[in-house]
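Lab manual, section 2.4: Encoding a predicted structure.

Procedure: take the sequence of the chain (81 residues), apply the prediction step described in section 2.3, and record the output as structure tokens. A sample record is shown.
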Amino acid sequence: MAGQEAKKQLLHLVFGGELKKLGAVEFRDLDQLDIVGIFPDYQSAETAWRAKAQATVDNAHMRYFIVHLHRLLDPENKATG
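Recorded output:
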């Protein structure tokens, strides 16, 4: 990347599964969690999350989440959005 500042890596995890009941975040079967992947920025994580969420829209109990891994890895750094 000559002449460009390297984009800061902010890791995000996208995963989902079927919830036991609506309104709670307790999964029906942990062995069936869908680990979509780890992404280098929020934008790519959101794209993957949106695709999975839309693909499972007919199942009201199926939920996908984005976890800000960079916040867990560096909790003292408030600048990592």
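Check your result against the sample. Strands lie at 12-18, 34-39, 62-67.
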